[in-house]
C-alpha cells in the first residue's frame, strides 16, 4: 500500500482476477480489438458487471487526480474508445460462459444476455470446443457432491435452444448448456466475493503453484463468520474432489463471499468437474494436501496433517470425512446410473473409485 502499483498492462492481482481467462478472454479481446494482456482495456469494458460487488467506472480525464500523473507514477491518460462497453459482464475462468437473466415465458424458461444496467442471475456454460459433454459432466459431479453434503447453488441443464442473443459461437453438436445460479447476485443486488487468488494476492497464472490447501483452511478457520462450519465444509469438498477425480480445484475455484456485506464466509461450491476423463493419466489434486498431491495415495492421515497445518482441530473434521465416505458409498453408485454423464465418462469414474486407497474406495 505504500507505493503505487505501476504496470503497463497488468492490473493488480485483486483486479486481474476479476477478468476471464482462456477462450472467453480471447473472444472479448477480439471484439475490443485489443491485446489479451491489455487488462486495463478489458476491465474498462467489463467493469459494469464484475464478479462480486466491485464496479469499475471510467473517469473523465479532468477528474483524474494530479498525483496519479506524477513523474514517479509514470502514468498517462488514454482516451476510452467509443465501443469499449461492447460487453456487459465479466466471469473469471477459462471456459466460455455467460451471465444471463432467467425469463419465464409460460412453461418455457428462456435465458437472455442482460440489457445494460441489469445484472445476470445465472451463469450459463456452453459446451466446450475442446472436450466432449462438459455440461453433463459438471452437472453430474455437482449433483454427486451435493449428495455428499457439499453446499452448492441451484444447478440445471438448459437446452441450447433456450438461450437468446448469444454471440456467434462455433459450438459442438451437443444439446445442453450447464446453468448455475449466481450466489453473488440477489435479484439486482451485488453481493461481494473474492476468490483465493485475490485473497492471497496471486495472479491467475499462479493459481496452481503458489499456495496449498492448508493455507486456505487456516484463512477460513481464522476469519470466517462461522469458522467451524466452513472448515468442516472445506474438508468435505477436499475429499469430494478426490472421490470425483477433480484435479482443477485451484486457488480461483475457492472463494469467500459476504452475504451480510461485512463477514466473510466460504462460498457455495462451483466448478466441480471430473477432470481425469479429459486429462490422460491425471492423478493429482491442484494443490498440496498435507504433504501429498496424489489421489491414489490419499488417506485419512493426509487430512489429519492438513488439519494440523491449518490449525483446525482434527476431532471436528474427522466425523465429516467419514460422513462423506458413507454417503458416497451408499448413494453414488446407484445415482450415477441415472445422472446424465456420458457413459464413457461414467466408466472412467467407476475405475477411479476402485483405484483409491482403502480409506476412500467407493
Task: Walk me through this protein's architecture.
By secondary structure, the chain is of the alpha+beta class. The protein is 33% helix and 15% strand. It is built from ten helices and 13 strands. It has helices at 13-16, 22-32, 39-46, 134-147, 196-199, 213-223, 227-243, 300-310, 314-338, 343-355; strands at 97-105, 108-113, 122-125, 155-159, 163-164, 176-181, 185-186, 189-190, 193-195, 255-257, 265-266, 284-289, 292-294. The strands form four sheets. It has a six-stranded mixed sheet, covered by helices on one side. Helix 6 crosses helix 8 (300-310), helix 7 crosses helix 9 and helix 8 (300-310) crosses helix 9.
Keywords:
single chain; 362 residues; 6-stranded mixed beta sheet; alpha+beta
Amino acid at each position: 500500500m505504500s507505493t503505487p502499483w505501476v504496470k503497463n498492462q497488468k492490473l493488480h492481482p485483486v483486479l486481474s482476477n476479476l477478468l476471464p481467462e482462456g477462450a472467453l478472454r480471447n473472444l472479448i479481446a477480439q471484439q475490443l480489438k485489443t491485446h489479451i494482456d491489455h487488462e486495463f482495456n478489458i476491465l474498462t469494458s467489463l467493469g459494469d458487471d464484475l464478479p462480486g460487488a466491485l464496479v469499475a467506472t471510467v473517469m473523465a480525464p479532468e477528474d483524474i487526480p494530479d498525483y496519479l500523473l506524477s513523474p514517479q507514477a509514470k502514468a498517462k491518460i488514454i482516451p476510452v474508445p467509443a465501443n469499449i462497453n461492447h460487453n456487459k459482464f465479466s466471469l473469471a475462468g477459462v471456459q466460455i460462459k455467460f451471465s444471463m437473466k432467467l425469463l419465464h415465458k409460460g412453461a418455457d424458461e428462456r435465458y437472455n444476455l442482460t440489457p445494460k444496467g441489469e445484472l445476470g442471475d445465472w451463469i450459463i456454460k456452453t459446451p466446450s470446443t475442446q472436450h466432449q459433454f462438459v455440461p453433463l459432466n459438471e452437472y453430474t459431479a455437482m449433483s454427486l457432491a451435493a449428495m455428499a453434503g457439499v453446499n452448492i447453488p441451484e444447478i440445471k441443464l438448459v437446452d441450447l435452444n433456450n438461450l437468446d442473443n448469444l454471440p456467434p459461437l462455433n459450438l459442438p453438436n451437443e444439446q445442453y448448456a450447464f446453468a448455475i445460479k449466481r450466489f453473488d447476485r440477489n435479484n439486482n443486488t451485488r453481493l461481494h466475493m473474492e476468490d483465493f487468488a485475490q485473497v492471497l494476492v496471486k495472479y491467475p497464472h499462479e493459481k496452481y503453484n503458489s499456495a496449498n490447501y492448508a493455507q486456505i483452511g487456516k484463512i477460513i478457520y481464522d476469519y470466517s463468520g462461522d469458522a467451524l462450519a466452513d472448515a468442516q465444509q472445506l474438508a468435505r469438498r477436499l475429499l469430494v474432489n478426490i472421490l470425483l477425480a477433480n484435479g482443477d480445484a485451484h486457488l480461483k475455484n475457492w472463494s469467500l463471499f459476504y452475504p451480510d456485506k461485512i463477514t466473510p464466509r466460504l462460498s457455495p461450491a462451483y466448478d466441480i468437474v471430473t477432470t481425469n476423463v479429459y486429462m490422460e493419466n491425471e492423478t493429482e489434486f491442484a494443490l498440496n494436501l498435507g504433504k501429498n498431491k496424489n489421489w491414489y495415495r490419499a488417506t485419512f492421515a493426509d487430512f489429519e496433517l492438513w488439519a494440523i497445518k491449518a490449525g483446525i482441530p482434527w476431532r471436528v473434521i474427522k466425523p465429516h470425512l467419514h460422513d462423506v465416505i458413507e454417503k458416497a458409498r451408499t448413494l453414488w453408485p446407484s445415482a450415477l446410473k441415472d445422472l446424465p454423464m456420458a457413459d464413457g465418462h461414467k466408466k472412467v469414474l467407476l475405475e477411479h473409485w476402485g483405484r483409491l486407497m482403502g480409506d476412500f474406495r467407493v
